[in-house]
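Exercise 7. Given the components listed, write out the predicted structure of the assembled complex. Treat all entries as one system.
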Amino acid sequence: MVLMLIVSISSLAMADEAEEPEEEPVDDETVEEIEIMNNSLGCQIRLLQLKKAITGNILKGEMIVDVIEGLEYNTSDLESILDEMDLVLDEAKDADPNASNATEIFVDLKSDAKNLTQQFRTELKELLSDVKYKEIKEQVKEMVSNELGNYSIKVRNRIKQFNRNQIYRLYGLCGEGNNSAVNQYMNGTMNLSQVKLQLNKMINMKAKEKREEIFLRMKREKLQNRNNATAEALSISASCSQRAQERLNKRLENANNSGNEKLIDRIQKQIENNSNGQQNGNSESGNNNGKGKGK
Amino acid sequence: MEKAKVNKNGGKNMDKKILSITVLLMIVISTTIAFVSFKQLESTEDNQDYPEEALTEEEISNEIDDAFLSEDDEVEIGDMI
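Answer.
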């Protein structure tokens, strides 16, 4: 019986291994970020933060290009990366936080933005000497922008709303309905650290059993959110290369409309690389499957 | 002669009985071991959430921290330079 169990478990594990798609997993940081995306407010926060981050990088990138253009470097590759980042930003702006696939869109666009940022950095390092690179890094360190400031205000307001809901929830868990803490937090007479301190004191004043019950409920809800986020991240990563291809096709369409030759060329190359990669992957997985069957 | 034959058959039957009892015993023992380890694993998993020692203020404070978002929270996509 034990033998039968071992045989069936190992065959199941082998079947899982064979069917497992070869996709890039969603990184831990992003899994943590999507934990709050189980409601519209959480989606609004993450998409706004993403738009802010992409906008910041585009502005910084433009500043860098301006500086090194003045030093008579060829900046066309850097510019085409920034043009593609602009397309990613447009897609983030178009994303609906109420849509059922808002989390998927966030994960995809964040991944694209990260890749483009990395490409820009690598390209820049190849172009400049170490000394020049450090010099320009110092020059663009402090960047002030109204656009970024507006995003910061919006993000902060949404986060305050999120925290307000959490204050309600935690007071509810403690069996208390304290509206004054919420009001004080929202009108700025009490900051987040003070709210947390007040909650901590209130929970610690409870009887031991009640304290443990509140603690366990907080922990369980957190674990539940984490498990949901992990499951969602897994399902998102399962078809990421297909979606990446679709996004590139859409970007190529937009680039064609703008008539930006350099950008068209750049996106076309990526589409070719992706389809070559997929073909190689398919033939490799075909070979692997073949091997598996042979065994 | 016949008695010897009967004894021989009886011996064979006894061997079979011993074999089947041994097999049965093995099945029962392995099932019991599997069941006990499964139950132990289950109870360990169940108890994982429960604090064995008294809760400290720090543990509660950490749970409260995790429930909120810092107002300066950001999504990181890396630096351009």
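Discussion: The mean pLDDT of chain B is 80. Chain B touches chain A through 31 residues (CB under 8 Å).
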